[in-house]
Amino acid sequence: MTKKLVLGVLCMILSTWTVAKTTIQKTEGVNKLTVHADQGRETIAPEIYGHFAEHLGRCVYEGFWVGEYSDIPNVRGIRTDVVEALKKLNIPVLRWPGGCFADEYHWKDGIGPRDQRPKMVNTHWGMVTDDNAFGTHEFLDLCEMLGCEAYIAGNVGSGTPEEMQDWVEYMTFDGDSEMANLRRKNGREKPWKIKYFGVGNENWGCGGSMTPEYYSDLYRQYQTYVRSYPGNWVAKVACGPGGMDYNWVEVILKKIGARMNAYGQHYYVRGTGNWTQKGSATNFDDKEWFALMENTLKIDEIIRRNKELLDKYDPHGRIDLYVDEWGTWWDEEPGTKGGFLYQQNTLRDAVSAGIFLNEFNKHCDRVKMCNIAQINNVLQAMILTKGKEMLLTPTYHVFEMYKAHQGAKLLPSDLVCNGYEMNGAKLAALNVSASKDSSGSIHVTICNLDPDAPAELEFVLKGAKPVSITGRVLTAEAMNTHNTFENPNVIKPTALKNLEIQKGKICVTLLAKSVSVLKIN
Fold it and tell me: Which of 76, 77, 167, 478 has its C-alpha lying 20 to 30 A from 506's C-alpha?
C-alpha cells in the first residue's frame, strides 16, 4: 500500500469519526453549533425513513385493509385516507409481512380468490384468525399506491427453500414458468420489482430460537434460492441481532458476509421498566422521560459497534446496515386486546423519534435503511384508526418534518451545548443533524431533550452564507400530550419564532421538549 493510499484511508476514517461531534459544556450558557456546509460527502439514503407493516393487531387489517365492500372509502380494499396521509411522508420502503409473523407465514395461502384462501392462526399476536385476505398482490398494490419499494421478509423458521424460491419467482420472473403463469392467472401479467428480501426475521428468537452458527448455515442454503431474475436485482438481507448482541453480528459477518448485501439490527426502547412491565405510554414522570432519552441515545453506540465489526470483516463497504425494526415499546393501552400492541403516541415518542433519525443520518455511510415499528395502530405508529376515523400521531409529524433529509448530503457538524441532568446522570440537552438538498437549501433538525428548559442556540455555516431562514417546531405544554379521536390536532407542527440572522450568525430559541426543523437558503 502506497503512502498516498494510506493517507487517503486515514482521511476517510477521520472524516467518518468527526461527521458529528457533540460536547457538553462545563458552564451553562448559549449553545453553539457549527455546520460545515462545504463538506458534505455521504448521501442520506431515503430508505432510512422506511416503515414496517406486520400482520399484528390492527396494523394491516383496519389500518390498511378494509375490503372492497367497506363503507370506509377505499381503492381495491385499501383505505384511501391512510394512503393519502402516508404519501405526504414520501415513504421510500415498506417492510412486510413481519416481524415474528414472517416465519409462520406461507405466502401461497395469500394468493388467488379471497373466498378460497385458507385461514391461519396468528400464534404470535393474539391467537386471532387471519383469513389471508391481504396477501402478496394486495401488499404490492399498496406499495404501488404509496410509490415505495417493497421489502419482503421471507420464512426461514417454518418454511422451506423451495417455498422461498417460488415466492421470488412468482413476484419477479417475466418468462414462462409455473410460478409466473400462476401470477398471471391471479391477475398480474407483468412481474413486480422487488428490491429487498429478508432471509428470515429474529431467528435468534421468535423466528426459530437459533444460534448464530445454526442460522448462518441455514442462511447459506436459503439465500441460494433468492434469485435475481432478469430485469430484477434483489438485495439479500440477513437476520441481524436484537439490541447489543455483538457476538451474533460477528458470527454472521464471519460465516456468511460474502453472501449478504445487508443485515438487520433491531432496537426497541422504553423508560425505566422491564419487558414485562414496560410502562405507560401516557402516564409517566420526569425520571421516565429522561430514561427514554438516555436509552434512545444508545443507538449511537450500537451503530458504532456494528460499524467496527463491519470495518473488520467488510473493509470495502459492500455490506449495508439496516435498522429494520426500531421505536418505543410501551404497555398496551388499557381495555385493548392483548397481543395487539396498541399504544398511544405522545410528545415523548416524537422527541425519541427525532433523536433516532438524527443518529441514523449521522451514520449514513453504513446505515442505508431503517424501518420504524409500526406504520398503523401498533407500537410507535404514524397513524391510529378507529372505524372511519383516522388521526396523525406526533411521530408522524416528525417524519413529515424530517423528510427533507431524504436523499440529501449529510453535513458534518460540531455542537457545544448544555447538559440535561437527572439524578447524577447527564446527557447533551440538544441532538442535531444537518443536510444539504439538491437545490442547495440546508436543513437542520434539532431535538431539545430537556422537558423544562428552552435553549438559546447560535450557529454558523462554514462555507456558506445564510440569506433567509424559516423553521417549524413540534412541542406542547405537557410532555405526555397526544392526539385523540375526540381532539385529533392537539399536537402538530407550528411556525418556529425568534429566528434571526445576525452578521452571518443564526440565532434561535429552541423550546423545551421539542423537535425543530430549520430551512436555510
Answer: 478
